[in-house]
Amino acid sequence: MLRYLFLFCLALLAACATEQARFAGAEDPLLYDARTVANADKIAIFIPGALASVRIFEPAQKWKDDGYALVFYRYPGLDGLPLDHALGIEDAANQIAAFASRYPGKPIRLLGYSTGGPIAIRAAEQIAGDVKVAAMSPAVERGGGLLTGLHGGYDLLTAVLVAGSFDENKVWRQYYRTLLFGRNALRDPDRMADADNILGPDKDGITGPPDGMTRAHTGDLRRWTLDAVPRLPADRLRFFIGLEDSLFSTGQTHRFARNFGPVQIWGYPDQGHLLFETHPPVFDDVLAFFEETAN
Fold first, then answer.
1. From CA 160, how far away is CA 170, in angstroms rounded?
2. Alpha-carbon gap, residue 169 to 277, rounded angstroms
3. Residue 198 has pLDDT above 80, yes or no
4. Lowest model confidence (mean pLDDT) among 4-8, 110-114, 127-131, 169-173
5. Stretch 182-192: mean pLDDT, rounded?
6. Which of 4-8, 21-25, 75-79, 203-207 has the highest mean pLDDT?
7. Three-class SS string for the chain?
8. Which of 4, 25, 124, 193 has the greatest CB tally within 10 Å of its CB?
9. Distance between CA atoms of 153 and 90, rounded to whole angstroms?
10. pTM of the full predicted structure?
11. What is the dihedral of CA 289, 269, 150, 158, to 10 degrees?
12. pLDDT digits over 114-153, tens only?
């Protein structure tokens, strides 16, 4: 399922793609156990990135030992949810906020990865009470616009040149290495060895998403912007990013974060966009932030 991320940059470049109608799907996108949520002390809501399964949050399963009920927001066509609608950033935020409102008094923690970052932020702005957001490798306004499109085009071209082939499998392996550890990793034998260990022999092939999924997951992100004055307090938000992220650069993230005031940005050296895969301890850092008490 992570191999779907290979096509994310292509989706951002596809500005002329036909738009898919946005409407509520036939099924609830939230995946959770109602009894567990009702009995838990705290609720953690996880929102993945475009073309990614909620399984990327597997390392957070141990949070149950800290009193959290785990809730996952699914995207169209993944994790058992039908591909019968397109993702809307505001729609998803509204659904998550409405869910949280059913549990007044419980601390709500939201972890959004990539496209899930904006969704988590917008949801938190609507949730009363004790709420915090961790944005991991977050997408920025308008999906990074032309700059991210140029980054993606450059990295794909580099992957073709390094692979020495237009063969989809070979190009994918090279591009995935960039997503894992950034552009500089292509010149680092040790990082390439780490990337190959992650890729493994079972990831030689690439499977594209079903027709319409890329457009359904990314179309609204290309248009999304923050409100003029974001309402989420800076101490309620923290960014966790790979400092070699080739999709949304450190500079883009810092410019995005300035909208919220003095937000803390935790940067991880030698890590790329797929921080959840290359540096699982990031989940421990997120949990520590969620568990911090106000001074």
1. 8
2. 20
3. yes
4. 4-8
5. 81
6. 75-79
7. CHHHHHHHHHHHHCCCCCCCCCCCCCCCCEECCHHHHHHCCEEEEEECCCCCCHHHHHHHHHHHHHCEEEEEECCCCCCCCCCCCCCCHHHHHHHHHHHHHCCCCCCEEEEEECCHHHHHHHHHCCCCCCEEEEEECCCCHHHHHHHHHHHHHHHHHHHHHHHCCCCHHHHHHHHHHHHHHCHHHHHCHHHHHHHHHHHCHHHCCCCCCCCCHHHHHHCCCCCCCCCCCCCCCHHHEEEEEECCCCCCCHHHHHHHHHHHCCCEEEEECCCCCCHHHHCCCHHHHHHHHHHCCCC
8. 124
9. 28
10. 0.88
11. -140
12. 999 999 999 999 999 999 999 999 999 988 777 777 777 7
State both tokens at 246.
């080739």
Tokens of 265: 């940005």
Contact assessment for residue 294 and residue 130, using Cβ atoms and an 8 Å cutoff: no
Structure tokens at 65: 């030992």
pLDDT at 20 over 50: no
* Location of structure tokens 């980054």: 151
8 Å CB contact between 118 and 225: no
241: left (phi over 0), alpha (psi -120 to 50) or beta: beta
